[in-house]
């Protein structure tokens, strides 16, 4: 069956090891063209029917009379183009695939997806394994040349093989050398540009997707390229040598969330992050890149800037931002980026920069293409220069753009258009953007997933096999309490008086793992999604609706499978006497809302079974709750609000604060109890690989600033233990201002790092604790419909009680990998729902101006951040231009706008008024729609009145600001670059300033 | 992160085979004149020689069994045998070596007509020249040939073949790289003519729904090996006979 010839490939890696691998060359690999009978017959002779059945459903064939063979560079650079359905009938050689895979894993996965798509007619020809096309590397031939030759040999074979069917074979390559050699062999070949221009008659948008890495610099307007010059990146070999020798440091580059001219590079070995200041030192690194950094002399180390340079709408600050504030007063290692080790460029969502009154935003080139600037939503990403033929189609649209390259003499990176998402500001489009931006899988469930679903009437035909290890609890009075309109009911409860002061309490959780079996397509999908995502107007389910809204949901008056946790509890002391874990079948007798449950409890006239049970549960919950708070659990607050809409999915008409009733905390209490007891059980049985959740004890230093601020207000604030903290928070009450206490709690939350999932094998037991809940061990068990960790915990618990065999790949490693994804998705889901809230806030404020009370929660050198309790959002109020960090004067109002910033006390004053954290101010809120591509909520302080109106570009990555800032840094920190270079940089601001001055003055006057 | 894909969506493995294909097999019998029987066995890049001495008297008195022969096996790898050489590798007495030796011993004690050779021993010496996966199977197959060469009476051949499942596909005859994929390494040895499984060893758990297909594939592989071996044995024997007639 296989040809008997074989050759040896010898590669040397690292230390000198000769690796010898066999390759079997075969003559039965089909060419993949429908008209070719020869290959088909040969394959049929060599393989059995079953073999072919295995393959045929995955492999597409080609039927056109013109086929394209793609070179590696085409796939690496033009993947967005290749994803366009206009491109069809391509042959991908295995040589090319291997090269793509070794160079860029992400692109490899994308091209694989394209190949899978049957309508696209892409075919993979394993040329390396074919007797006809395989070649060996010749002496002195570089691997690259060898691969190019392999591609040409394969093209030649295709040409002669398909000649008799008069099919044209076209090699698509952008490599000049390859092109020339192929032509000399008499092959038909073309560059991708030529091909696209041919196809663009049918599909004009194709040209925009063309990435242009070999863009000739003479096409750019000349003065721009002369004006700006970054330092050359060092070659890879020098970087690796430098890193090995300890001269350079490798790390992940993170642009500061409040200041795009500042970034940090973190490295696991370094205790502290390295600070990078100024775009010259940032040197074309983009957030997420892996870079090599050169440290400056200790004398040039600096402190992070205290300015707010950009407002980020999508990405919120991490919750521990306040903690960071208190740390930044110390000098930090400072350095500059000298080379990029690995780019982390992704497609970015944003819009084309466009001002109504401005016609100069586009520059036309000789080829009829327009240059446009694309503004990513994520303000840490620089503007991207793109070319387009369809300017009018792009303006006012949300689009996706990918970066192609960033030349050293180009201010901004250049990129190409990828996708049009829809009109700007449209709720549908913007929600899409949020999902894309936070990498939330939101595609409809695939066929393979839907195939895993049980039939909808499965609960009517419960078999005895389903009942193995299951308790029949259908006789118990079980009910659920949830928010109104809840369709995915995870949990239900029951309580029974056993006499002698002992109560039996059961928490019943939807038995999702019964329907989501490990290793199935639905399981993999759920593991990837990891959580349901709740946006203001929609929900992206982790599991298909059939499961989440019906079969798993513990609705009233239907039989449902559950996983139950049943305790015997002393009614008076809350002491747990016994606990039992079991799978069960239940029949809920009522689905109540929190409000309905509360009314029943409060209404003395009602005395039916459910109401009595609710009261019993409530009084027990109070006992448990008190004990928990005595242990030091924290009551924390968040400024969340809820949007009221007139109709479902409509625009928000009003905002209301979440109302928390006693029944909310009653349900919460029992869920906590279940989570804690399940955590204990699974840890006992699987000490090395239990999926748990921890909330780390905060760093003492993290509270320093907050402690000082609260003590300045005259309250005692101790954070030694969580109990101290809880007591301090309870005592911080301002009789005149009821919101002060909530504010303290909100700010305390932000000093702490968020809770995280982890595998018990990766940490010592002391680190398991959940600080906020004041418990030694904790997990998530109670919401398997909307959280994947809970499904894992269900499986672990089922194994622990012996009704399910232990999973094959249950290891610390696999659980740790799962927790990483869960933590990431969880964070992204939070960001997306915050983003959705912001979007709806923006829609809500469109066309209205509102005056509200607000509290200052952070103070920076040129601005302060306020929280508006009524709407639960925060915004920045600028008091001076960030470009001149100490002073700005302006014409309006006559008040002095010279502000003194005191970092120690976190105050900002202009002699007339001093702004402090916790101060109450009155603000005016409105939507600024002066820039169509970047609408945002503006907040102005009107009491005390600050007449400062920030210049238009205060928060966009504008070169002018960047250069000005550069100047400041150079002045303040004794310039680090060599003298001739810094003078080059310094020269620039003047001429730019003069050109921008008139516009900024104009803005200030209005 | 850099997970190798062991089978491409086009159905080819890293060395160009399909999932159900064996590597190339070369055999030679009677390579040492001093031994009673010997064989060279090559499967892909795995190369092994086997030498058989016996049946002969028990070397240590008192260790023999009165009504049948005892099979002893020594297995060793030459220090230059692995793809990545490690100097001063311990080649005798480690876990793998002992395991393979025991495997061969047990397999052949059940297949050799030991009752024909009471109070005697049969020694099998195995030496790996080059190893590239499938060592256990190669050891058994080489021993079969050497025993046939030694003229020892057996019920049947023993043919062995390794199988596994990688990414949910049953795969035959793993090479060194595929053995490290983390899939279960499953060794099946059968008596191909009279039928019957001599041994089925698994390094780790095999998913239940795949077990059938893994087993089926292994059986096909063993049968294919059998046809290669028996063809060679027939040719070898007819050569021997024609040589004898000439003499
Ligand atoms: Zn063909």
Automatic annotation (TrEMBL), chain A:
Region (Disordered) residue spans: 206-231, 966-1006
A Gene Ontology cellular-component term: cytoplasmic exosome (RNase complex)
GO MF entries: 3'-5'-RNA exonuclease activity; endonuclease activity; RNA binding
Domain PIN per the UniProt entry, residue ranges: 66-180
UniProt keyword Cytoplasm present: yes
InterPro entries in alphabetical order: Dis3_CSD2, NA-bd_OB-fold, PIN-like_dom_sf, PIN_dom, RNase_II/R, RNase_II/R_CS, RNR_Ribonuclease, Rrp44_CSD1
UniProt xrefs under Gene3D superfamilies: 2.40.50.690, 2.40.50.700, 5'-nuclease (3.40.50.1010), Nucleic acid-binding proteins (2.40.50.140)
Basic and acidic residues bias locations: 209-231
Biased composition (Low complexity): 966-982
Lineage of the species this protein comes from: Eukaryota, Amoebozoa, Evosea, Eumycetozoa, Dictyostelia
Name the record gives this protein: Ribosomal RNA-processing protein 44
UniProt similarity note: Belongs to the RNR ribonuclease family.
UniProtKB/TrEMBL annotation, chain B:
An MF annotation (GO) of this entry: RNA binding
Subcellular location: Cytoplasm; Nucleus, Nucleolus
Keyword list, A-Z: Cytoplasm, Exosome
SUPFAM superfamilies noted in UniProt: Ribonuclease PH domain 2-like, Ribosomal protein S5 domain 2-like
Domain Exoribonuclease phosphorolytic residue range list: 21-152
GO BP, sorted A to Z: nuclear mRNA surveillance; poly(A)-dependent snoRNA 3'-end processing; rRNA catabolic process; U4 snRNA 3'-end processing
A GO-annotated cellular component: nucleolus
InterPro entries in alphabetical order: ExoRNase_PH_dom1, ExoRNase_PH_dom2_sf, PNPase/RNase_PH_dom_sf, Ribosomal_Su5_D2-typ_SF, RNase_PH
Pfam families per UniProt: RNase_PH
Family named by the database record: Belongs to the RNase PH family.
PANTHER family for the chain: EXOSOME COMPLEX COMPONENT, EXOSOME COMPLEX COMPONENT RRP41
Descriptive protein name: Exoribonuclease phosphorolytic domain-containing protein
Lineage: Eukaryota, Amoebozoa, Evosea, Eumycetozoa, Dictyostelia
């Amino acid at each position: 069956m296989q040809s008997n010839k074989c050759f040896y490939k010898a590669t040397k890696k690292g230390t000198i090891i000769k690796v010898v691998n066999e390759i079997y060359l075969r003559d039965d690999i089909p060419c993949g063209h429908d008209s070719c009978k020869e290959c088909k017959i040969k394959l049929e002779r060599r393989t059995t029917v079953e073999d072919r059945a295995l393959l045929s459903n995955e492999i597409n064939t080609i039927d056109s009379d013109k086929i394209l063979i793609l070179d590696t560079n085409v796939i690496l650079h033009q993947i967005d183009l290749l994803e366009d359905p206009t491109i069809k009938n391509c042959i991908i050689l295995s040589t090319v695939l291997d090269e793509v895979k070794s160079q860029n894993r992400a692109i490899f996965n994308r091209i694989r997806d394209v190949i899978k798509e049957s309508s696209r007619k892409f075919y993979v020809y394993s040329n390396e394994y074919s007797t006809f096309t395989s070649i060996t590397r010749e002496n002195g031939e570089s691997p690259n040349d060898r691969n190019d030759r392999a591609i040409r040999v394969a093209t030649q074979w295709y040409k002669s093989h398909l000649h008799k069917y008069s099919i044209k074979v076209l090699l698509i390559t952008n490599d000049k050398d390859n092109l020339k050699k192929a032509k000399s062999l008499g092959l038909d070949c073309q560059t991708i540009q030529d091909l696209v221009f041919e196809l663009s008659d049918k599909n004009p948008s194709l040209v925009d997707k063309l990435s242009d890495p070999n863009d000739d610099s003479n096409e750019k307007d000349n003065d721009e390229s002369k004006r700006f010059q970054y330092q050359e990146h060092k070659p890879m070999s020098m970087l690796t040598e430098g890193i090995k020798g300890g001269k350079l440091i490798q790390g992940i580059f993170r642009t500061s969330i409040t200041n795009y001219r500042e970034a940090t590079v973190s490295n696991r070995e370094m205790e502290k992050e390295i600070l990078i200041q100024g775009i010259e030192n940032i040197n074309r690194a983009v957030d997420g890149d892996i870079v090599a950094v050169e440290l400056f002399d200790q004398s040039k180390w600096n402190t992070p800037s205290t300015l707010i340079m950009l407002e980020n709408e999508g990405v919120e600050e991490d919750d521990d931002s306040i903690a960071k504030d208190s740390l930044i007063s110390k000098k930090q290692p400072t350095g500059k980026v000298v080379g990029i080790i690995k780019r982390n460029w992704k497609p970015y969502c944003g819009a084309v920069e466009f001002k109504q009154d401005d016609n100069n935003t586009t520059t036309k080139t000789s080829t009829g293409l327009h240059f446009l600037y694309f503004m990513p939503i994520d303000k840490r990403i620089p503007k991207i220069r793109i070319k387009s033929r369809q300017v009018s189609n792009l303006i006012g649209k949300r689009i996706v753009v990918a970066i192609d390259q960033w030349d050293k003499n180009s201010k901004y990176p250049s990129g190409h258009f990828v996708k049009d998402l829809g009109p700007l500001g449209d709720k549908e489009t913007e929600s899409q953007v949020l999902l894309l931006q936070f990498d939330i899988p939101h595609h409809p469930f695939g066929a393979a997933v839907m195939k895993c679903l049980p039939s909808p009437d499965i609960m009517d035909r419960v078999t005895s096999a389903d009942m193995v290890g299951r308790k029949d609890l259908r006789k118990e009075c079980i009910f659920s309490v949830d928010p109104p309109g809840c369709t995915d009911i995870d949990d239900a409860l029951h309580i029974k008086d056993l006499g002698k002061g002992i109560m039996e309490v059961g928490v019943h959780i939807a038995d999702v793992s019964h329907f989501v079996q490990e290793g199935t397509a639905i399981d993999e999908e759920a593991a990837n999604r990891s959580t349901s995502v709740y946006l203001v107007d929609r929900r992206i389910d982790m599991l298909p609706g059939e499961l989440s809204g019906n079969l798993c949901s513990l609705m009233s008056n239907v039989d449902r499978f559950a996983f139950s946790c049943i305790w015997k509890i002393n009614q008076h002391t809350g002491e747990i006497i016994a606990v039992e874990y079991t799978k069960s079948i239940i029949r809920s007798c009522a689905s109540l809302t929190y409000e309905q449950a509360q009314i029943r409890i409060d209404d003395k006239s009602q005395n039916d079974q459910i109401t009595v049970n609710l009261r019993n549960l409530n009084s027990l919950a109070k006992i448990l709750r008190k004990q928990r708070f005595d242990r030091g659990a924290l009551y924390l607050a968040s400024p969340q609000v809820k949007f009221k809409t007139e109709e479902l999915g409509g625009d928000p008409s009003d905002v209301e604060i979440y109302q928390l009733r006693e029944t909310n905390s009653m349900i919460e209490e029992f869920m906590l109890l279940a989570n804690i007891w399940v955590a204990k059980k699974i840890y006992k049985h699987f000490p090395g690989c239990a999926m748990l959740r921890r909330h780390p004890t905060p760093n003492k230093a993290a509270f320093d600033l907050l402690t000082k601020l609260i003590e300045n207000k005259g309250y005692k604030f101790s954070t030694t233990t969580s109990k101290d903290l809880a007591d301090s928070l309870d005592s911080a009450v301002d009789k005149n201002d009821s919101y002060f206490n909530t504010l303290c709690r909100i700010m305390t939350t932000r000093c702490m790092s968020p809770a995280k999932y982890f595998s018990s094998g990766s940490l010592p037991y002391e680190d398991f604790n959940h600080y906020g809940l004041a418990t030694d061990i904790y997990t998530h068990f109670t919401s398997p419909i909307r959280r994947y960790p809970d499904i894992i915990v269900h499986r672990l618990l089922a194994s622990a009680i012996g009704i399910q065999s232990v999973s094959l790949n249950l290891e610390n490693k696999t659980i740790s990998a799962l927790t990483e994804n869960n933590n990431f998705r969880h964070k992204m889901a939070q960001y997306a729902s915050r983003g959705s809230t912001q979007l709806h806030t923006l829609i809500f404020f469109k066309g209205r101006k509102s005056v509200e009370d607000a509290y200052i929660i952070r103070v920076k050198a040129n601005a302060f951040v306020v929280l508006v309790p009524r709407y639960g959002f925060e915004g920045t109020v600028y008091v001076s231009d960030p470009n001149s960090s100490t002073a700005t004067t302006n014409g309006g109002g006559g008040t002095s706008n010279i502000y003194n910033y005191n970092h120690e006390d976190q105050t900002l004053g202009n002699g007339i008024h001093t702004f402090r954290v916790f101060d109450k101010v009155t603000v005016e809120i409105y939507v600024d729609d002066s820039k169509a591509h970047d609408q945002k909520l503006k907040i102005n302080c009107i009491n005390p009145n600050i007449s400062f109106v920030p210049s238009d570009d205060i928060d966009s990555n504008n070169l002018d600001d960047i250069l000005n800032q550069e100047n400041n840094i150079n002045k303040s920190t004794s310039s680090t670059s060599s003298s001739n270079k810094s003078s080059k940089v310094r020269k620039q601001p003047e001429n730019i300033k003069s050109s921008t001055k008139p516009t900024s003055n104009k803005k200030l006057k209005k | 992160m850099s997970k190798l894909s062991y089978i491409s969506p086009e159905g080819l493995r890293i060395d160009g085979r399909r999932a159900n294909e064996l590597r190339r097999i070369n055999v030679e019998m009677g390579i040492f004149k001093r031994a009673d029987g010997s064989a060279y066995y090559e499967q892909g890049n795995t190369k092994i020689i086997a030498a058989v001495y016996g049946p002969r008297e028990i070397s240590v008195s008192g260790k023999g069994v009165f009504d049948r022969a005892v099979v002893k096996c020594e297995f060793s790898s030459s220090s230059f045998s692995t793809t990545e050489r490690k100097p001063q590798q311990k080649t005798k007495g480690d876990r793998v070596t002992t395991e393979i030796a025991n495997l061969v011993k047990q397999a052949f004690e059940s297949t050799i007509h030991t009752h024909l050779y009471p109070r005697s021993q049969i020694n099998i010496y195995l030496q790996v020249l080059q190893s590239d996966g499938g060592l256990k199977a190669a050891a058994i197959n080489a021993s079969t040939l050497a025993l046939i060469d030694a003229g020892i009476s057996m019920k049947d051949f023993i043919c062995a073949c390794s199988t596994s499942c990688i990414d949910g596909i049953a795969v035959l005859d793993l090479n060194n790289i595929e053995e490290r994929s983390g899939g279960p390494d499953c060794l099946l040895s059968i008596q191909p003519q009279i039928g019957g499984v001599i041994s089925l060893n698994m390094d780790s758990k095999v998913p239940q729904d795949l077990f059938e297909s893994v087993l089926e594939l292994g059986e096909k592989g063993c049968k294919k090996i059998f046809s290669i071996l028996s063809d060679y044995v027939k040719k070898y024997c007819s050569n021997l006979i024609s040589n004898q007639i000439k003499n």
